[in-house]
Amino acid sequence: MTRVKAITSRLKSGFLPPAITFVVFFGIWQIGVQLADIPPYLLPKPTDILRAATDNYSLLLSALWTTAVESLLGFALSIVIGVLGAILLATSKTIEKGVYPYAIILQTIPIVAIAPIIVIWIGAGTNAVIAITFLIGFFPMLSNTLIGLNSVDRNLTNLFHLYSANRWQTMWQLRIPAALPYVVAGLRISCTLSVIGAIVGEYIAGIGGGKGGLGFSITNAALRLQIPYLFACGLAASLLGIVVFLGVNALSRRLLSSWHESELSTEH
Fold it and tell me: Which parts of the sequence belong to the ABC transmembrane type-1 domain (predicted)?
């Protein structure tokens, strides 16, 4: 019974406020557009968007699936290479000072300037979109993980030295666990960027037709002035980003809820 009350309370505090905001926002949107008599090609009503989504649901679902796969693959790649790269840099200050500035430089180059080179190297299509998604999501993972690995309590580091732990024992048993909150912070940033990266990649290097993602669908809808469907694609992209973010949040709670203050405070 106590557990049921706790779940109900959690739903009320976590689900109800955004649900009310959602209803109020779309209600004002619907009524406001109707009262102002704004034509659909300027600002469609939510019901127009819903109708466009249901009329084109097979195309929309296919585009959403394509973008979701590209986002998750690029995100996974940015996690693996970002975390491994940070561990490599954290093993030596010399390596960190020699390599990290170039990672910053890579981050500062606009993706639209790199994308044509990627297309030339590996061709247009899914692989190029995944590569662009990886580049956008890579740096937050690298920098956050590196900060976490370098932020270990000095007293604990000295304790490991006292017990003659070698470099890799210290890394595996102390520095990586201590860096987990920072890794999770990087995941939260990178996961939403991965959705944006996939859509940007589809603009620049994606393919069209039935294999196109949301980026292609948005471009196509804009060219054909299918504004309600364009809004539907945009909202679908937003929904995808929210789902990925909630997944990362669930992972964060699983990893940190038993010991880290940031997740303990959300449990009580």
Answer: 64-252
Q: Are residues 33 and 49 in the same domain?
A: no
Identify the CA nearest to 81 among candidates 57, 60, 63, 106.
Answer: 106
pTM of the model: 0.85
Q: Exposed, middle or buried by CB within 10 Å (0-12, 13-18, 19+), for 43?
A: middle
Residues 217 and 99 in one domain: yes
Supply the Cα-derived Rg of the chain in whole angstroms.
23
Mapped onto helix, strand or coil, the DSSP state of residue 32 is helix
Tell me how many domains the chain contains: 2
- pLDDT tens-digit profile of 158-189? 898 888 888 888 998 999 998 999 999 999 99
Q: Cβ distance 136 to 196 under 8 Å?
A: yes
pLDDT score of 268? 46
Residue 66: CB atoms within 10 A of its CB come to 24
